[in-house]
């Protein structure tokens, strides 16, 4: 196959098939150079057609925690108190500049990822009340307060 700009899915699939035939090319041969050229052509096509966005900053922190086997306690040195760690990981508190610097230096998370605005849809997912069937047996009991009982609260 002759190298050319990939414009269609057919071009892309043909380039992938040709690349597969070149996978066993020896170093320093013309086949290796052709392999590299087709890899670049395919990469350019894929970046245009299948862009990958940056991850949410909090999700990036959680991913790095998982990669390194860290716990919430381990993040205290980067974020602050245990309460702050919990608030950040639950999308309740934004990352401060000091937190961003510490997470970049300590965990190697790029500034570009940490400085983004958190994705709103992730924060909302955590706070959505689950819909229960209309049957009363699934609903929590009504909370009785002094006001609902007709009793005035003592003034202080």
Report on the structure:
With 156 residues, the chain is mostly helical. The protein has 2 domains: 9-49; 57-127, lambda repressor-like DNA-binding domains (434 Repressor (Amino-terminal Domain)). It contains 8 helices and no strands. It has helices at 9-21, 30-49, 57-68, 76-79, 82-89, 97-107, 111-114, 120-127. α1 packs antiparallel against α2.
Draw up the topology in text.
Blueprint: H1 9-21, H2 30-49, H3 57-68, H4 76-79, H5 82-89, H6 97-107, H7 111-114, H8 120-127
Helix pairs in contact: 1-2
In short:
This protein has 156 residues and is mainly α.
Order of helices and strands: HHHHHHHH
CATH superfamily of the largest domain: lambda repressor-like DNA-binding domains
Query: What's the level 1 CATH class of the largest domain?
Result: Mainly Alpha
Q: Specify the CATH architecture of the largest domain.
A: Orthogonal Bundle
CATH topology of the largest domain: 434 Repressor (Amino-terminal Domain)
Number of strands: 0
Global mean pLDDT: 82
* Uncertain regions spanning at least 5 consecutive residues: 125-142
Radius of gyration using CA atoms only: 27 Å
Structural class: mainly alpha
């Amino acid at each position: 196959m002759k190298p050319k700009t990939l414009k269609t899915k057919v071009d892309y699939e043909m380039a992938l098939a040709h690349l597969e035939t070149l996978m066993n090319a020896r170093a320093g041969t013309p086949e290796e150079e052709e392999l590299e050229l087709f890899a670049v052509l395919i990469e350019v096509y894929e970046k245009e057609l299948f862009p990958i966005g940056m991850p949410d900053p909090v999700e990036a922190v959680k991913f790095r925690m998982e990669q390194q086997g860290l716990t919430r306690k381990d993040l205290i040195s980067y974020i602050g108190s245990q309460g702050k760690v919990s608030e950040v990981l639950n999308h309740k508190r934004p990352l401060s500049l000091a937190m961003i610097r510490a997470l970049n230096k300590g965990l190697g998370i790029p500034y570009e990822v940490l400085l983004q605005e958190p994705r709103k849809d992730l924060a909302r997912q955590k706070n959505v009340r689950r819909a229960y069937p209309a049957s009363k047996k699934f609903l929590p009991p009504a909370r009785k307060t002094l006001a609902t009982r007709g009793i005035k609260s003592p003034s202080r």
